[in-house]
Structure formats: structure tokens, C-alpha cells
Amino acid sequence: MSSSDKNKNMDEIEHSIERRLNYERASVKCMRTLLEPGSIDNILPRILNIVHRVVDNSRTYIFKNELDPDLGLCMSQIYEAVSYGIEPQIDNPELQYLSYNEATPTLLTVLESRQHFAHLVEELDDPERTILSEQGILSVLIIPIYAGKDFWGFIGFDDCVKAREWDENDIDLLRMIADGIGEFISHRKAENELRESEERYRALHNATFGGILIHDKGRILDCNQGLVDMTGYSKEELLANDSFTIVTKESKHIVMEKLASRSEEPYEITGRRKDGTEYPIRVQAKNIPYKGKQVRVTELRDITEEKESEKALKESEERFKALHQGSFGGIFIHINDIIIECNQGLSEITGYSQDELIGKKGITLAAERCRDKILDVIATDYEEPFEVIGLRKDRTEYPLKVQAKTIPYKGKNVRIVEFRDITERKESEKALRDSERKFMNYLENAPYGILILDEHGNYLEVNKTACKLTGYDENELTQMNISDIIAPESLITAGQSFDELKTRGYTSTELQVTHKDGSVSWIRRDGTKLSDNRFILFSSDITEMKKAEHSLIEAKMLAEHNNRIKSEFLANMSHELRTPLTAVIGFSDILQEGVAGELTEKQLGYVDHINKSGNHLLEIINDILDLSKIEAGKMELECEDFNVSELIDETLKSMYPMSGKKNIKLYLRNNINNGNVHADKIKIRQILYNLLSNAIKFTPDNGEVFISIEKTENGIQVSVTDTGIGIPSEMQDEIFSPFTQVDASSKRRYGGTGLGLALVKQFVEMHNGKVWLESEEGKGSTFTFTIKNQKKDD
Ligand code: ADP
To answer: What residues does the PAS domain cover (predicted)?
Structure first.
């Protein structure tokens, strides 16, 4: 070996040793860099620069793999280091998302078997050869990067200056660095995953929905923000205390039991906040190992809302059940208009069976023209009742009242809808309207004027007749006051009547009103108080009635006047007649007695006639005089004490000559102990005389007439009974009127004037008594009268 060869060898050995040293230094530097904290983006470019400098090639780069669903495994260049004068490829789009299978299938096979790829480009086959030579690459070394088991990417070295042969040193160094990078990446990946999971855990831990605590036999070792929010204690306070401070005393026992049994089942207790307020909580605990110990991780959840909605749900379910079972209407629950439940009432109303209704659209139960309205109601959650037209299964329609409410039901918000068939109500409303119309029609055309007024007397409403009565039209009247149409002479009465209406609630009066044309008419007005301080008046025109009444009064007054004149005339006349008659009777008596000389038989007969006729005339005149006196109010009682039995006895005796002539048995049938009365003796005698003389007169020969006497509470009752001809029933009331006799023939047969019973009646009534008769034709009559004891002063 020549010395120059030797020198050359020495240089090469020196150079090789130096390169090796450089390579080792670089690898140490790389390893140290890889151990530094920092992100992949910060570390890997620095590694690439170290390696690039020591290898001294044209370009060094790292590609990262990505799996594309269409292209398969792809590579993208992510970092690059280039030497001066070499074109960088970092922005070359062709080196992004490049499919291994399409661009470099051989490379893929090599790298996947964890081998390196070291070639001179000209020796390569296509497509690798074309793609690399296009970038001006003469020589290439590519080493796979594995992150753990995953083929992550590769690190590559190009030489564009010379066709460089890669030696063992290059390959070993770069392999070591690629492995370092792989390990670095897989470590960072694990770290990231850990950090992410820690962040997730922390987020979970601090989530506000619940309190989480880790405790050892009740002593709190750790807790989250949720527990702080829930309990009102700070985290420091919680950690300084045991877990029993956050629950009530009663709940503490439950918690201790659960602790002792190491139960992992959820249970409910009552929590107690720092401010003393209590709230329901649900607890779930798990036993876990923590820092070498078995501890319990407990989750606490504030279930106030849950409890409240549970309670509301229960209430609403109960309400629903009550409604459901009530028979008064149709009820259903729908979600988005689909009926999910309904009662029997709904099937009765709609004609569908319950099975048919479930699943049906609620809207189809209403007539089509009403559906928009219902949809509006549903959309606005409207809860007031409204009316639509219902549609039955048989397509018939009916008026329907609907009310819907949104309620929680089995954990959801649903609409509960109540249907009510209001056909009957509608019908009765119509009937009411009809009857109101009819009634209004009646009112309007009533024969009364109907006027409604307020408490000040202003007319509010009037009917047609009221207008007719006053001459004013409706508009005019409703602008007027009650006093405006009253005639001046009735103003005081009208005022009193309106006061009475207001205070007593009703009034009834007769008034004169002035018609619009000035004429005055009489009206009768009845008023009643209505509600709201309003009054209703019924008015009717009584002008004609008033006129008739007036003429009646006038006629009566005239009649009374005439009667009085007649009575006075009669009284005077009777008096004037009696005086000459007394002379006729008196002188005929004297002639009969023969004081003025003996009379012949014939003369005596004539004088007897004169005397009898005179006496008869005197009787008649006396009766007329008495009746006239009574009618003229001039007859008065002259009372005294006397014994009625004695008076009857006396009267009977005076009648014997009369009864004897007809052989009539005349007697007093019974007597009383004390027959004393205070009365007008003369008039009682007259009564007895009139009744007895009638009885004898109308009783045939050999008959019977008797008197019965009874005491009454304050007087006496006397009956005169005969066995005579009797009185037909149709005449029995009349015979007490003056000049009444049963018939003309009787007048002839029995004589008389028809004044006797009229006088009896008047005298009895003057004694506050009564007279009546019982009689049967052909069998006889009984006349009975009562008289009352008169007051001594009279
Ligand atoms: P007078 O007897 O003068 O006709 P009265 O007033 O006493 O008038 O009687 C009226 C009429 O009543 C009599 O005319 C007679 O028709 C009838 N009357 C009265 N008393 C009796 C009687 N006891 N029985 C039958 N009829 C009688």
C-alpha cells in the first residue's frame, strides 16, 4: 500500500469515525429533544432539522398516514427540512392525501413489513420511479414510523445532488430516530387521551346537575362543584366535615345503614342545606378503590322538581281519573291530535266505540268547517271553553262545547279535552229566545202601557200602548220624566205613589195624565220594583170607567135623594091620612055604641063596615109610615127591660079571638127560665103579631100554630110554626121585600098588603138579629127570628 493510499485510508477512517460521532451526537440530541415537554408540532420539526443537518442530504421529511374510505391508506407530507438551493415540496398538493396503492404500492408493501426503502431512483420501477424523478430525486431512503403497533407514517431522506448509496450507519441512525419518533408519538397520543379523559372526568365531576363526593366511612375526601352548589357549603367546609352534616338527622340513620351494608342501590333521603332548608335527594353510592383504600363514591341528586312534578302528575292523574269516570261528558287525551285515551262518555257522544276512538285524530270529531279554529286552539294552548259543531260517526252534526287543558301525563305533556253535547242547552236557549221574543211581542202589544223607569223617574223603556196612551212616541217618552205627563191635579198623588213604589216596592194608583195634544185622561197605574233600582209601571186608560163611575155615583145620589123625598112624602102623607081616619074610626065607634041614638040593624051593619075598613086602612097606613120612617132613617129603638115569655103570652092571648074563629090550636110550645131582655118591646110585639097573624091567616081551619122560644148567647130566638099552606121555595127569599105576596089569588083570598114581613125584617135587623124561614108547600111554615140584647145606653 502506497503512503498516499495509506493517507487516503486514514482520512476515510477519520471521516467515518467523525461521521459516526456526529450521528451519535445527533441521535442523543434527538432523544433528548423527544423527551422535552411540548407538542408534536413543536418537537418533530426540530428533530427533522437535527437529522437533516447531520445526514447532509437535499431534503428530509415526515409523512403522516390517514385512512381514506375510498382511496385506502394515504400519505400527507407534514414537515420538511431542505438544503440550500433545493426546491421545498411542503406546499406541493401532490404530496397531500396521496394514495399508497396508486402512487407507491411497492413502498407500502415494504413499509408495512417494517422494512426501510433505500434506492437509487433510476433503479426503481414505475410508478415510484416516475413520481420520485419528477421531484428531481436521485436517491431516496424511507423508514417507517410505528406508533406502537400502528403504522403511523414515515421519515424520508432524498438526495437530489448525487445518486447516494445509503450505508449501514445512515440506515441504523435513521431507524433509531424513526423508532424514537414512533415512541414519542404513541406516548403523546396516550397522554392526550389521558388528558382528554381527565378533562371529561373533570367536566363530569363539576357538572351542576348533581353532587358527587368520595368518602371514607362518612368522611368526605373529595367532592365536586355540584355538591357545593347543592348544599350551600364551600368545598373546604365540606372536606372538613363528615357527609352526615349535609342530610337531616333522620336521614343520617338511613345513610349509616346503607354504609354498613355497603349497598349500591339508589335510595331517597332528605338533605339539609347550610341555611337549614331541607330538600329531597336521591343517593346512589358505589364502592371503589381509591388511593389504595376502598371508598364510596356517592352521587346526590336534588329531586325537588322531580318530586313536585311527580306530585303534580299524581294529582293530574287523579283528576283525570275522576273526570274519566264521570258520566257527564266525553273526555279524551291526545298527543299531537292522536287520541291515546278516552272515556265511555266520548263514545256515547260521538257514536264511535272506544276502540275506534283510540288512535283516531281528535280533529275528525268536529265538523270540517270548525277544524281551523280547533287547530288554532291547540297551537296556542288555549284553555278556555269554546263552542264548535261536532260530527258523529253517522255524519250527523251537533253543537259541541270543548274545553282542553295541557297536563303532564305519564311523563309527557298531553292535551286533555272535554266534550259536552250542548244540543239540549242550545234548544232550551232557543226556546228561551223564542219565548222572550213572544213575551216581548206580548209586552209590545199588551193592552197596558208598560213603562220602565229609573229611580229618578226617567223613562228608560216604553211599549207601543204607552205611546198610544200619552200621544208621545218612544223617542220622546224615553227623554221624559214621570212628572212630565202628569196632569197638575194629580201631581201630589203621583209623587206619593212614586215614593211608595221606591220604599215599599209596589204601588197602585189612579191619576190624570195630560196627553201630548193637551187632552186629559184618567189612567190606572200599578208599579213594581225591578232589580237595579228600576221600576216597571203598567198603565191602563180608565177614563171611560171613571165617567161611568161618575154617572153611577150621580145616579145613586139622585136615587137616594128621590127615595128620601118619597119617604118624607109618605111619612107626611100617612100622618095627614091618619088624622081624618082616627075621626072615621072614633065616630063609627060612637055610632056603634048607640051614644048618638039607636041605629037600625041595617045602619049598624054599615057602621061596622066603616069601622072595620077604617081600622084596616089605619093598619096599612101605620105600616107604610113605619117602613118609610125606617128608610128615611127616622125610626129609632126605644129599649126597655121586659120578659119575652110574658110578652109572648100576652100576644097569644090577644090572638085567640082570631084563632078561635078558625078553630086553630094556638100555644107556646116551650118556655125558658129567665126570658128578660133589653129591647124595643113595642117592635118585638109587632114582630110577634105580624108572624102569628100570618100563621093563622095562611093555616086552614082546625090547624095548629105554636111558638118556640130559646135563649141565645146574647139574646133570644123565637120561632112561629104553622101547619098551613106553606110557601113555594122560589118565593121564600122575596117575601121579605115590601109589597110581595105569593100570588095574586092569595091576595084575593087572604087579603093583606105585603108589608108585614118587610117590617118584621127591618125591626129584627134594628135589633142586630136575623129572620129566616123554613117552609114546605102544603105542610106549613116556620119563621124564626133572633134579637140581641141592646146596650143600655141605646
Ligand atoms: P100580607 O100578609 O099582608 O100579604 P106579609 O108581608 O105579611 O103581607 O106577607 C107576604 C106574603 O107572604 C103573604 O101574602 C103570603 O103570601 C106569604 N106568607 C106570609 N106568611 C105566611 C105563612 N105563615 N104561610 C103561608 N104564606 C105566608
So the answer is: 196-259, 339-360, 435-490
